[in-house]
Amino acid sequence: MKNHTHDPQETKKILNRLARSIGHLESVKNMVERDADCSDVLIQLAAVKGEINNISKLILKQHLDHCIVHAIEDHDHEAIEKMNDAINHLLK
User: Fold this and answer.
1) What pLDDT, on the 0 to 100 scale, is given for residue 1?
2) Phi, psi (rounded to 5 degrees) for 91
3) What is the reported pLDDT for 65?
């Protein structure tokens, strides 16, 4: 059960980073449409992947620092199980 809120400043940082990643991915899409060099496209995709990984780390940290702390305090075993499942998906 979610009985807390996220820090609006942290949420804004994550949203800004997501917006930049979306813009970067749109640029990669344009490169493919322009038939850009495959090596250049792959390098840019690796950069997008790195950006997404870093955003995932921020969200995970926020989740551990706030959501899971509250879940432990509230004895919310379901939230802890969901976190474990999410981490398993993230690490695949």
Assistant:
1) 47
2) -85, 0
3) 83
Locate 29 and state its tokens: 């899409």
Residue 71 parent element (H or E)? helix 69-73
Q: Which fold has domain 8-90?
A: Methane Monooxygenase Hydroxylase; Chain G, domain 1 (1.20.58)
Contact 21, 52 (CB under 8 A): yes
Spans of all domains in the chain: 8-90
Query: CB under 8 Å to 36, separation ≥6 — which residues?
Result: none
Q: What is the average pLDDT across 38-63?
A: 94
pLDDT of residue 7: 83
Alpha carbon distance 36, 24 (integer Å): 15
